[in-house]
Write a structure and sequence with these properties.
The strands form three sheets. Strands 2-3-4-11-5-6-7 form a seven-stranded mixed β-sheet, sandwiched between helices. Strand 8 and strand 9 form a beta hairpin. The protein has three domains: 84 residues, Orthogonal Bundle (Hypothetical Oxidoreductase Yiak, Chain: A, domain 1), CATH 1.10.1530.10; 155 residues, 2-Layer Sandwich (Ribosomal Protein S8, Chain: A, domain 1), CATH 3.30.1370.60; 40 residues, Wheat Germ Agglutinin (Isolectin 2), domain 1 (2-Layer Sandwich). The radius of gyration is 20 Å and the shape is globular. It is α+β, with helices and mostly antiparallel strands. It contains ten helices and twelve strands. It is 39% helix and 17% strand.
């Protein structure tokens, strides 16, 4: 059997139980499992529920603080810097975006940085928080150095993801969530588990030789290349300035997976009504959407999608079905986590 069909509710309940069995506060456990499941349901299995293995290991070995005391260390009416106390990046990022949203309700714009943080998985969940309030939201995070600048072969930048969300009249936001590298490093391991080869131009060794066999990719001594060359490199550098340098976090080569508390995040939100009336904004966004989706299509193209639309539609369909098919490798990680905590694993649906 190459995949297992699992009920969505049962899957999230199981993730919750494994986290709480490791003394993770109930609210934090729910949020972590919610974000893992959200990525899975949107079709990003490389950032999905398989990461429960990484999350639990980080808690067990003490690399990440189970019960961080997040605190604001610098603040103005429109800005804040949060010390994440070496907490899980999902928790610190959720808190930071909530602070930015609350400030924006008063100021119209807010920026919040996070230091002493860790891997936050994806930007989508946090910019979605802003969009639900009717705000434009941005999120970015630096990460372990793995990407060289164009012309170089030194691991200088992380994949440094960046995300935005734009509210729309129908309530389904336009959302972009992407790495500034040509691919997220986790996709290499997904290809490895599926027995797939890597396309040229994605990964190289430290001598600059291309890697197409994912088994030859070493996360500690291989390279992931920048998205679109100089363009991805330029964005990755910006992320390190805002999420790393500006927050007092690690940046560039000083962000390492072997150390904790070196990653930083940066969020900002905009209240559109401080610029134009909501009615005008909605009409203009609706016009933009029509222009994008109903332009002339290329041959064999059935539909033009907005950024993030396919993932949102997939999630809605999975929720309607009530189950999701997960790869065998993911199922084994979940089962292993359950076995370690003496928790009953979710029962596959025949």
């Amino acid at each position: 059997m190459n995949s297992y069909r699992i009920g969505i509710f049962e899957l999230q309940t199981t993730l919750n139980k494994t986290l709480k069995a490791n003394s993770i506060p109930e609210k934090d456990a729910y949020r972590i499992s919610e974000v893992l499941l959200d990525c899975e349901l949107r079709g990003h299995e490389d950032h999905g529920v398989a990461h429960i293995d990484y999350v639990l290991t980080s808690f067990k070995n003490g690399k990440i603080n189970k019960t961080p005391s997040l605190r604001v260390v610098n603040e103005s009416f429109a800005t804040a810097l949060i010390d994440g106390d070496n907490g899980n990046g999902i928790i610190t990022s959720t808190k930071a975006m909530n602070i930015s949203i609350e400030k924006t309700k008063t100021t119209g714009f807010s920026a919040v940085g996070v230091c002493n943080s860790n891997y936050c998985l994806a930007g989508f969940p946090y910019v979605m928080q802003a969009a639900r309030e009717g705000f434009i939201g941005f999120a970015m995070s630096n990460s372990t150095a793995i990407m060289p600048p164009p012309g170089g072969i030194t691991r200088t930048f992380g994949t440094n993801p960046i995300a935005y969300a734009i509210p729309t009249p129908d309530g389904t936001p336009i959302i972009l969530d992407m790495a500034t590298s040509v691919t997220a490093a986790a996709k290499v391991f997904t290809a490895r588990s599926k027995g797939e080869m890597l396309p040229l131009g994605l990964a190289e060794d430290l001598q600059g030789n291309p890697i197409t066999d994912p088994h030859k990719f070493d996360p500690f001594s291989s390279l992931i290349l920048p998205m679109s060359g100089a363009k991805g490199y330029g964005l990755a550098l910006l992320v390190d300035v805002l999420a790393g340098i500006l927050t007092g976090s690690g940046f560039a080569q000083t962000v390492s997976s072997s150390t904790s508390s070196r990653m930083g995040q940066f969020f900002f939100t905009i209240d559109v009504e401080r610029f134009i009336p909501r009615k005008d904004f909605n009409e203009r966004i609706a016009s933009l959407i029509r222009q994008v989706k109903f332009g002339k299509k290329r041959e064999n193209t059935n539909e033009i999608y907005l950024p993030g639309e396919r993932g949102i539609l997939r999630k809605m369909e999975q929720i309607k079905l009530g189950y999701i098919d997960i790869p065998k490798a993911t199922w084994l990680k979940i089962k292993n986590a359950c076995d370690q905590e003496k928790i009953e694993a979710p029962t596959p649906i025949n």
